[in-house]
Specification:
This protein is 9% helix and 39% strand. The protein is mostly beta strands. It has two domains: 1-30 and 100-114 and 159-205, Translation factors (Elongation Factor Tu (Ef-tu), domain 3, Beta Barrel); 31-96, 2-Layer Sandwich (Double Stranded RNA Binding Domain). The chain starts with a strand and ends with a strand.
Length: 205
């Protein structure tokens, strides 16, 4: 298995063998159930789909309920696909735990960042404020000029301006696995992970 689905528990710190502080994020990784094994013959590509967290029947639409019933498992909150490990035989209903990871290896973690609402260019794009001089008025934190005059008479696409900040998918790569807790099914990785507490994350390698 190349990865697991989980949720972010929070952050804490550990001490290494030299008594140096190591900031870590605690993730609840799995258990994840195999919901579908995709093949080139049926789907055009190979992958294994897994689900995490049970969902009630009344909150599951009919197509997804039929999908889970076919696999013989209860409805899941979230699903994700991972590459197959060559030579390993996957079957629907298999359960994978945090034991597939080892301390010292590096993983990539994807999650949805915290939504911070409508934000200005200083907070959103790290702009500098304008000079605070006589006659500046109330434009100290404004972006300034965003385009030209009569030519080309428009604002180019992608211009950095104020707007929705956060609430987007982000991936942090090469996070070191510091500790594995198989009893609690938790993985501790060095550094920060996108998202708020209890937010869903995908851990892959």
């Amino acid at each position: 298995m190349r990865g697991l689905i989980g949720k972010k528990i929070g952050m804490t710190r550990l001490f290494d063998e030299n008594d140096r502080v190591v900031p870590v994020t605690i993730l609840q990784a799995g258990p994840c159930v195999v919901t579908q094994v995709k093949t080139i013959e049926n789907d055009g590509y190979e992958s294994v789909q897994v689900g995490y967290g049970e969902r009630s029947d009344k909150h599951t639409n009919k197509p997804m309920k039929g999908h889970f019933d076919k696999a013989g498992i209860p409805p899941m909150k979230i699903t994700a696909e991972f590459e197959k490990v060559p030579g390993f035989e996957y079957k629907q209903g298999q359960v994978f735990h945090v034991g597939i990871f080892n301390p010292g290896e590096y993983v990539s973690i994807s999650g949805k960042s915290k939504g911070k609402g409508f934000s200005g260019v200083i907070k959103r794009h790290n702009f500098s404020r304008q000079p605070v001089t006589h006659g500046q008025g109330d434009t100290t934190r404004h972006p300034g000029s965003i385009g030209q005059a009569s030519d080309p008479s428009r604002v180019f696409k992608g211009m950095k301006m104020a707007g929705q900040y956060g609430n987007k998918k982000h991936t942090v790569e090469n996070l070191e696995v510091v500790k594995i807790d198989k009893e609690m099914n938790q993985i501790l990785v060095k550094g920060a992970v996108p998202g708020a507490k209890n937010g869903m994350v995908v851990i892959s390698r």
